[in-house]
Amino acid sequence: MARGQAGTTGRRKANGAADTSSKGAAGPTKEELLGYYREMLLIRRFEERAGQLYGMGLIGGFCHLYIGQEAIAVGVEAAKKPGDEIITGYRDHGHMLTCGMDPKEVMAELTGRIGGSSKGKGGSMHMFSTEAAFYGGHGIVGAQVPLGTGLALANWYREDGKVSFAFFGDGAANQGQVYEAFNMAELWKLPVVYVIENNQYAMGTAIQRSSSETRLHKRGVSFGIPGEEVDGMDVLAVKAAAEKAADYARSGKGPYILEMKTYRYRGHSMSDPAKYRTREEVDEVRKTRDPIDHVEELLEKNGWADEATLKAIDADVKKIVADAAEFARTSPEPDPSELYTDVYTDVAAQGGRA
Amino acid sequence: MPALSPTMEEGTLAKWHVKVGDTVKSGDVIAEIETDKATMEVEAVDEGVVSAILVPEGSEEVKVNTPIARLGGEGGAAAASAPAPVEKPAVASEAAAGDPEKQPPEAAKPKPEGEGATPVTPKVELRDPELPEGVSLVKTTVRDALRDAMAEEMRADGDVFLMGEEVAQYQGAYKVSRGLLDEFGPKRVIDTPITEYGFAGLGVGAAMAGLKPIVEFMTFNFAMQAIDHIINSAAKTLYMSGGQIKASIVFRGPNGAAARVAAQHSQDYAAWYGHVPGLKVIAPYDAADAKGLLKAAIRDPNPVVFLEHEMLYGQEFDVPEGIDWVVPIGKAKVRREGTGVTLVAYSRMVGFCLQAAEELAKEGIEAEVVDLRTIRPMDIETVVESVKKTNRLVTVEEGWGPMGVGAEVAAKVTELAFDYLDAPPLRVHQEDVPLPYAANLEAMSMPSVERIVKAAKAVSYK
Question: What is the value of pTM for the model shown?
């Protein structure tokens, strides 16, 4: 099946890329690897709980879970330098958690409470943190690509050495505005890394049914933007590729495209029965390519984590998630007075004048 | 029964995949549920042993949040810190039903305007700056006034830059940015490719990062390609981020009909953008306002749509020289005083109204001309004060009538000054057709001095 091939190819190629870029460099330390494990586990447990709260009616509307794609957010985060910006679409909870946003605030935003990071006014798809240089959370497919390129334009303008990471999916990769942004980014050599999270389904449409060129890392060719395919289920491959791409962008050479081959275990959103793929296909990925299992194996192979250590991490993560869920349940809804705040920066402009 | 779609209220438990005594772990499919949309597989979110099936297979109309099974934890500690998922709904259900705090507060429901939900806006007295003694007025074209505004703000603030098609080397498609490249260099005066959607998005992204871009559209007709970023990215993000992400950005360019350029190049977008909370919308008439309001727009921390008019670019007006001339956003200007009828307009139509007022004066009707200057937030108070004096209202706009700026003004005046009106308000606007190319049809379609005079006489019953 295509997915199997894609996965295998991806891992092999990515390792090759990682080897080249990190020649002579040491592999991950024990602390690093344990950290990735913990971060990925936090995302997974958080998302599982979000799914549960959705089922209980505490989360409304759209809710797109990141389960299966954890290695991408965590691997890129590990490659980032302080101040580097990130921006993504609506499958965004994983990025929020890895960039340092408080799980309580993220969960409370999902439940639409005042304790949420947007005071309950944004919801699952619209969270931001200027502190963490996280610029959303955008609900219009592909819009984050020009916006993320604009963040890079600001870095270029200020010559501050920062790189912007713009994440988008295989669905967004077909949007026209993506290519308008590619063109300007290369034209002006803007420091931006485009991270395509290719989970192989744009909602219910398999990539082969939506894309004339399915090797998305080649989509920059006509603009002169280099790109490579990466095993998005391998956090080390992701990190190595992201470091290489960021170095390239930071050095003034312009944008870089990383196509992360990944897979989402859940439906597109909570209400997606995912009938466009088989249960077996999902199970196969879970069994053979799971990003968390992969790190667990590495930890065990190196003798870096016994069962007790992993259990302790597990318990710690569960507690963080349980606390977040409790906070999200008990934080009050926004005060009615919040209805008209934040429309403008100045209250006088908020209409209602007459 | 979990909610599996935004609209689901009840479901059918089609099939159980587990039985009592089975051990399940996270991700295992435990049941199939038919929702209002589809049949969904329900996965366990934690490990444990199924201790009871509470809703048998085939049960229909099971309400959301009804417990369907009970899951016992593996170990006591784990179960306590993270209780099994399917037990949770019972708790949530009780909480939702019994705890008034979990219900949406009564006050959160939208209320009709004027009943508390609408904020009491602090009254800010906005007025044009006083001209200090000795300041001279210099005849300046609207085109140069706009250029001067940008140049002054770019000199004052290194975060301000201009981007758009032909703004740099070509010196501006309409020569508005003439000379800016020479003074500020290619980093601050950026020629873009012809990709409105993309470069508007880049501008908004740069604004989110704290810069203050001026994005020029060659005309606002082309900004329709970029309207998603103007509205979804620029206007809504402050609100969606709970006040965290600001976008200090100006979208500017000519708006409305030039001459003989036909339907696709001749549209007035004031009503479109005026509709959107989060945007400020400005449409100046003379050169002093063009300069003073553009400077205010560039300094404003909110996204501003600044609608210019090609037919006004070459017109000369007095502009104060040698001072930091900033006109407040949100304040209308009475351009001609009168007691007979109120004419409300913006942009080029203000000039038409002033001409119409001269015609009307010959027939004994003294018109008061109110230049809105800012479409949003709209200074309806100045309009209402005028109508209280004249008791008659005619609105004039270049755009189409339905759902237009005039419709909004008329609705507000009817609401706030109904008892003062001696006649139903009339709207003068472009005919309800795409603007024709043929000279005669184009003239028939556009608002004219003659039509304004006619409407003013009609509301005056003369």
Answer: 0.87
